[in-house]
Amino acid sequence: MRLYSTSQRDKVELPPPPGPIRMYFCGPTVYQRIHVGNARPFVISMWLKRWLDASGYDTVLVENITDINDKIYNAAPGASAELADQATQWYVEDTDRLGLGRPDHEPRASETIDEIRALIDELIRRDLAYAAGGDVYFRVRNFDGYGRLSGRLGEEEVPLNPSVEEEPSALKEDPRDFALWKAHKEGEDTQWESPWGRGRPGWHIECSAMAEKFLGPAFEIHGGGLDLVFPHHENEVAQSRGAGREFARTWMHNGMLRLAGEKMSKSLGNVISLHEALDRWGRETLLVYFMTAHWRKPMDLSSEVMEQAASQTETLRNAFRSKPQAGGDWTPFAEALDDDFDTPKALAVMHDWRRAGHLDLLRRGLDVFGLASLAKEQAAPAEVVQLAEKRRQARLRREFGESDSLRAEIEAAGWEVRDVEDGYQLVPR
Ligand SMILES: [Zn+2]
After folding, report:
1. Distance from residue 211's CA to the centre of ligand 1 (Å)
2. Could you point out which of 67, 101, 276, 310 has its C-alpha 20 to 30 Å from the C-alpha of 138?
3. Which residue, of 191, 224, 259, is where some domain finishes?
4. Is residue 267 one of the residues assigned to a domain?
């Protein structure tokens, strides 16, 4: 199997099965419900894991939860820990609803403080970091390979970097240097002891430490959104390679999701949460939508493209009402996925099977993407219909807490409820 890697700027062959294939994907910073664009790396990583597992690989997938970060302190002054807990719960609930299973490990930064402090200490001993005024900074000029991953050297980027992570600081020797440890500030409700004073870690070092804790000093794939290449991943490389680890062998960066042609981001105010998207379109349509674009390409989200995804989904579901035909070939599907995980091509192969009535292959293909539900019978049992009816009433009364908990009950019973124009629709999960 081959995957395009940002660091090699080319497709790179994975070792043959059983591998292992150890993967680290950067997960969310938990301070609000994740938006549907944040769900893309989650979906891609879970699909890739499912495909590698089905191809005979031993896989380990780590997806971290960033629960210490300036964004959280800023969003909830004095109460960041409560907000991070709440938003972690939302994240798990919302991604559970995708029905793709969970990564093998989902470490939190706040549970990795020992490893973070040890790594910072090692960087200081190697002269790659220095303490200043209670902070610790990475010394970029002493690390040879800085800029190799992103093709940027940092100097001109720092003042343009919109991240609240890296404010300019008079304590830095060089504007490219970035914080590994930050001294405690008035109003921050979490802090830890360290040899450099009380404080908390910077964002980048959290990922270096969490990846190593669960995958060891070298691993096959590091992934995340394209917006993380610089500075986040460049800085992870500097920290981990600087400390003598091989770190990630290949880098997968997924394209961004755009709403009306613009990158979806909180600061632009054009955000649809994953929660809303699932309520509005359902998991199957959302997954089919994600399949329609290659993982490296940007994607547009609009009502029109979601309608097209919904109609593709129904076409695939309807195929199972027809008589199955013998024959068909799995190879083109496997080839599409083995060559840079080309999901649009795999989807086209599934439509070929659908047209030809090769329903066994279609069922198997859908299962890789968490869509085996499309091949199931559709009549919901009476008690599930009753719950859905109660939920519809609750929504009419605008009791959304009640309606959410009824939805959870319906999902626990193996069904998904979707809001459609004149009521609801029940589909098997
Ligand atoms: Zn990260």
Report:
1. 9
2. 67
3. 259
4. no
Cα-to-centroid distance, 27 and ligand 1 (Å): 7
Q: Which amino acid is at 148?
A: R
Distance 57 CA to ligand 1 centre (A): 24
Q: Are both 232 and 293 inside the same structural domain?
A: no
Distance 422 CA to ligand 1 centre (A): 43
| 297 found inside a domain | yes
Answer yes or no: do 239 and 294 share one domain: no
Q: What's the CA-to-centroid distance between 232 and ligand 1, angstroms?
A: 7
| pLDDT recorded at residue 268 | 62
- pTM, rounded to two decimals: 0.88
- Are 96 and 216 part of one and the same domain? yes
Q: 353-370 as b/e, with b when 16 or more CB fall inside 10 Å?
A: bbeebbbbbbbbbbebbb
Decide which of 375, 400, 419 is a domain's last residue.
375
CB atoms within 10 A of CB 325: 12
Q: Please give the distance, rounded to the nearest whole angstrom, from the Cα atom of residue 225 to the centre of ligand 1.
A: 10
pLDDT digits (tens, 9 = 90+) for 225-234: 999 999 999 9
Query: Is residue 293 located within the same domain as residue 147?
Result: no
Give the tens place of pLDDT for each residue, 250-308. Answer: 999 999 998 866 666 666 666 899 999 999 999 999 999 999 999 999 999 998 999 99
CA of 45 to the centre of ligand 1 (A): 14
Regarding whether 106 and 158 lie in a shared domain, the answer is: yes
What is the CA(149)–ligand 1 centre distance, in A? Answer: 14
* Ligand 1: centre distance to CA 370 (Å): 26
Domain that holds residue 331: 282-375
The CA 207 to ligand 1 mean position distance, Å, reads: 5
Question: Does 389 lie in the same domain as 367?
Answer: no
* Alpha-carbon span 288 to 305, nearest angstrom: 11
